[in-house]
Amino acid sequence: MQDFTVTPWEVSGDIDYDRLVRQFGTSRIDDNLRSRMKAACGEFHPMLRRDFVFSHRDLNLVLDDHEKGKGFFLYTGRGPSKGMHIGHLVPLIFTKWLQEKFKVNLYIEITDDEKFLYRREYSWKDIGESAHDNILDIAAVGFDPQRTFIFRDSEYVKNVYPLLLRTARKITGSTVKAVFGFDDSTNIGLSFYPAYQVIPSFFEKKRCLIPCAIDQDPYWRVQRDVAEGLGFHKTAAIHTKFLPPLQGVSGKMSSSAGQETAILLTDDEKAVKNKINRYAFSGGRATIEEHRRLGGNPDIDVPYQWMKILFEPDDKKLRTVHDDYLAGRLLTGELKAMLIDRINSFLKGHREKKKKAEKEIESFMYKGKLAKEMWSRTYE
Ligand code: TYM
Question: Domains in the chain, ordered, with CATH?
Fold first, then answer.
């Protein structure tokens, strides 16, 4: 029985991540791989330590290549839309950490084409505005401007069109129907688009590692079917789970599902406070007296889960929050207040960095070392 759905277009239901790994044919990150990551990076990222970064394809081969001095490169992306939410930053924050640890090139694809084809209510002008705004948010995460290339599909297409065609020639209609659930009513642009999401994994002759949430994995299945026949490596991937929506610890935060499910990067202090207090699903008890006596349930408590995923990197402090909540010493209102503070200071920092990013996007897109190199290159 299928009681959840995970596709690049829809994530819903009570996600069983172990079953998803089996369904998608990916692998769990096991202790051995975790130790190898720690040895290579010198430390663990909390998302890895806490099993939020949980699944992969060929991460072992990436580490082999790294150890042998062959190197690898990173690739991730974003389908531009009005207003990014904190869930969108999750894979980007992890990607930034990987870039810092391994000092490798990173390509960020902005899929203006995909969004235009998928969201019929957007005009091309809307897409352009969203792309610019989203690129500022992405730049604010703080990637290395000399080693990062951020590009819009519609702009860079002239440098990759022959390779894109060579790739598209290898992908049949029945493949995209089976992998993405397209049918005869799907517009033909969307049937072509998956070929473009594959292309950045071919930007270097090294192995590519793609950090993303697991909803994007169907694209990598297609990539792995065609890569070797085109003379490239099968891509590797490292998957996160989803930052859950405010309403409950399953599913994914999504701005299209309604403003009250997500914290947007543009939300001000009042909006954050209001959303958390009003909507964040709590594992606390109905009354303070009952909560003190019986304790709360951190496993289903959205504020606790967000602290665990993003807002409390210190394991000892997180353990204290967990234990105090479980024992009823920490109240729901107190936990929510803690989270509101964390989110607001995070967003304040983000907004300041975003303001400065206007200058930096020149480097990421056109003028930095890697960007310049990419504009002088064509792919056949
Ligand atoms: P998009 O814009 O839907 O999502 C961007 C990235 O955010 C992840 N994501 C989440 N992660 C954690 N919690 C959530 N609630 C959450 N919601 C979204 C997505 O998995 C993704 O990593 N087709 C892509 C754009 C793209 C891309 C890529 C993404 C092109 N190339 C390579 C990843 C890697 C898209 O529309 O993503």
Answer: 4-246 (3.40.50.620), 255-353 (1.10.240.10)
How far is 218 from 36, CA to CA, in rounded Å?
26
Q: Would you state the structure tokens that stand for residue 204, as one six-digit string?
A: 């270097």
Residue 243: DSSP 8-state: P
CA–CA dist 368, 31 (Å, integer): 38
Q: Whose CA is nearest to atom 27 of ligand 1?
A: 77
Query: Angle, to 10 degrees, between the axis of helix 86-102 and the axis of helix 124-139?
Result: 50
pLDDT tens-digit series, residues 290-322: 999 999 999 999 999 999 999 999 999 999 999
- CB under 6 Å to ligand 1: residues? 8, 75-79, 87-88, 90-91, 109, 111, 114, 197, 210, 212-213, 215-216, 240, 242-243, 252-253
Residue 251 pLDDT > 90: no
Model confidence pLDDT, tens digit, residues 150-180? 999 999 999 999 999 999 999 999 999 999 9
For residue 313, how far is the Cα from the chain centroid?
18
Q: For ligand 1, atom 22, which residue shows the shortest CA distance? A: 212
